[in-house]
Amino acid sequence: MSFPEDFRLISYLSRLEHAARFPLSSSYPESMSIDTLFELAGKEHRAPFMQTVLDYPPLRGTPELLEAIASTYRHITPQQVISFAGADEAIYASFQMLLEPDDHAVVITPTYQSLESVPLSRGSVTGVALDENNDWALEVEKVRTALRENTKVLAINFPHNPTGALISRQQLTDLVDICRARGIWIFSDEVYRLTEFDPADRLPQVADIYERGISLNVTSKAYGLPGLRIGWVACQDDAWMLKLERMKQYLSICNSMPGEFLTTMALNARAPILERVMARSRSQRAALTEFLARYPHLFRLSVPKAGVLAFPRYLGAEGAEAFATTLVAETGVMVIPSVTYASELTPVSEDFLRIGFGRENLEQSLVEMGKWLDRR
Ligand SMILES: Cc1ncc(COP(=O)(O)O)c(C=O)c1O
C-alpha cells in the first residue's frame, strides 16, 4: 500500500461539508463558544487565560493539563500521559512506534480509516469484521483466530465509529486476557467514551486495566470541543511512552498554549460540559430514530448505544451512495455513504449511511429530508 492513501471520509467531508446547507455529517456534537465554556467552567478563569504567555508548552503538555487528563482515569498518573494535536496525530505517532515492518496487527472493521491505514503502512494487518446482521456485535473468538506469532497490537474502538456499538465488559476482559497471554499491545480508541446512553454500558479505559493498554482520547467528541485540537495517549509503560515522546519530537513537538489552557479548564469542569452534550444527544437520537422509523421501506437502524452517529442500512433500490448524492444535490441535506468506510481488510457493505445527530441543525434537516422523501 502506498501511504498516505486517500482518507476517504475526510475527502468526502472536505468536498461537500462546507457547501451543504444541512450537513448531518459531523462526528461530533454541537460545539460552544469560548464565552460559553468560561460560563460553564467558571468566570474566574478569564483573567488567567488572558494573561497566558504564548510560549511553547512542554512537549508532553503543561503540568496542569497532564494532571487534568490523569484525573479522568482511575490509575493513570500525569507522568503516564502525552498530549497531541488531536487524536489523529496520536494515532499516527502510536502506530509508528508500535509496528516494525515484520510485525502484524489486528484491527476491527469497519473503522475510522487511520486505525487501519496507518498500521497497513507499517506492516501486515488482519481485519476482524463486526457483524452487520447482529447489531454490529464483535465475536472475540474471531480476534483470537486472527492472531499470529508476530502479532504486536490489537486496535479497537468502542464506543464504535460509525455504528455506536459497544462490547461488554466481559468481552473487554477476554480481549485483555488473550493479549496479556501473548504480550500483545491493545491500542484502544476511546474518543467516544462518556457518550454512552446507558452509563452501565461504559467500559473501563484500557490503560487503567492493562499494562500494555494504550488509551486514546480527545476533547472533540464527548466534550464537544473539537476546535481545541487536544488529544492524548495514556499508558502505564514508561519505556514505550518515551518512544512515543520521541515520535512527537518530529511531529507537532507541542500543542498551542491557549488550547492547553482551555482544555485543562474544560476537563476540570467536565460534569456540566458532558451533561450538556448528553442532553442534546439523548433527545436528538430519539428524534432521528423516530424519523427513520417513519420510512421502514428505506431505513433499518441498529440504534447506537453511544456517540452522535447513526449507521442505518439504506434499503432503496438505487443504493446508499446514489441516495446520498441526490439528497444533498436536491435538498442540501448531507449524509455520508458507507463507501467512505471501505476497507482493505474485510468487505464493508456499501448499503449504509452515516448520519450525525449531535448538531443543532438536526431538527430542520429532518424536516427538509422528510418533505423530500414524502414527495418522492
Ligand atoms: C474513532 C475516531 N478516532 C479518532 C478521531 C480523530 O479525532 P480528532 O479529529 O479530534 O483528532 C475520530 C474523529 O472523528 C474518530 O471518530
UniProtKB/TrEMBL annotation:
GO molecular function annotation: pyridoxal phosphate binding; transaminase activity
Annotated keywords: Aminotransferase, Transferase
Domain Aminotransferase class I/classII large: 46-357
Transferase recorded as keyword: yes
UniProt xrefs under Gene3D superfamilies: Aspartate Aminotransferase, domain 1, Type I PLP-dependent aspartate aminotransferase-like (Major domain)
Name of the protein in its database record: Aminotransferase class I/II
Biological source species: Rahnella sikkimica
